[in-house]
Design brief:
The protein is of the alpha/beta class. The chain is about 45% helix and about 15% strand. It contains nine helices and eight strands. Strands 1-2-3-4-5-6-7-8 form an eight-stranded parallel sheet, sandwiched between helices. It starts with a strand and ends in a 10-residue tail after the last helix. The protein binds zinc ion (2 copies).
Length: about 260
């Protein structure tokens, strides 16, 4: 399995990060992408990725968009040269919390899509209560051959199909899938099928049942994988094979250089 969206560099893991990585590998999570939320956080993600020979993503979260540098492409430049960096994000629109003004969120989003286009990197999108506006931006900004994932997707079937059929992006599915009240999400996953789904934890947040409420970690992804298999009525091995293949394809991990130290 590949945890396509973790915050392994988060301070929540400072006390026992080695053990968490060991438990992940014991649970069959071979690798993971540690995702940055601003420039400083992205630097931490890269350092963590290099230390554990996993992968990192460089991005400015919509919550942090208000403090984004004026020239995001220039600010990202040196970080994108680092070993282990495989994606841009998380970036997107969050109209639920509105921690940054919507105009600032959208400027940062468009700038990050431009960097991804120029560098031929995939995008990790964070979208909450903003699916319609997000798709307007994607229609204007995504060009042929660009790849991405709507991480922690929690929309309905209509949204799911609009993303998959309209833009060919993956849906990142995490612990929310296991929650009792997530029937709409399970229907959405059934509608798009395993070919369009990535597994993720978004740890330390959003632990799946039976760990709900605890600090999440990559090893817990197995619970989400089990529910995904039940939801789709396919064997767990098929879920693991296909979601791994999807993550390898999105992040171009085959042949991507693994950090050596
Ligand atoms: Zn997010
Ligand atoms: Zn995240």
């Amino acid at each position: 399995m590949i945890d396509s969206h973790a915050h392994l560099h988060d301070a929540a893991f400072d006390a026992d990060r080695d053990t968490v990585v060991h438990r992940a590998r014991q649970a069959g999570v071979e690798t993971m992408v540690s995702v940055g939320c601003d420039l400083e956080d992205s630097r931490r993600a890269i350092a963590t990725a290099q230390r554990y020979r996993i992968y990192a993503s460089v991005g400015i979260h919509p919550h942090e968009a208000k403090a984004a540098p004026n020239d995001i492409a220039t600010a990202f430049g040196p970080l994108l040269e680092e070993q282990g960096v495989v994606a841009i994000g998380e970036t997107g629109l969050d109209f639920y919390y509105d921690h940054s003004p919507r105009g600032a969120q959208e400027r940062a989003l468009r700038a990050q899509i431009a960097v991804a286009r120029q560098r031929k990197l995939p995008l990790i999108f964070h979208v909450r209560d903003a699916h319609e506006r997000m798709r307007e931006v994607l229609r204007e900004e995504l060009t042929d051959g660009m790849r991405g994932v709507i991480h922690c997707f929690t929309g309905n079937t209509i949204d799911a199909l609009a993303y998959v059929e309209g833009f060919g992006v993956y849906l990142g599915i995490g612990g929310v899938l296991t929650f009792k009240n997530a029937g709409d999400l399970r229907d959405a996953v059934k509608a798009v099928g395993i070919e369009h789904v990535l597994l993720e934890t978004d740890c330390p947040y959003l632990a799946p049942i039976p760990m709900r409420g605890k600090r999440n970690e990559p090893a817990y992804m197995k619970y989400t994988a089990e529910v995904l298999a039940q939801t789709l009525g396919i064997p767990p091995s098929a879920v693991l094979d296909q979601t791994t293949r999807n993550a390898v394809e999105l992040f171009q991990l085959r042949g991507a250089e693994r950090p050596d130290s």
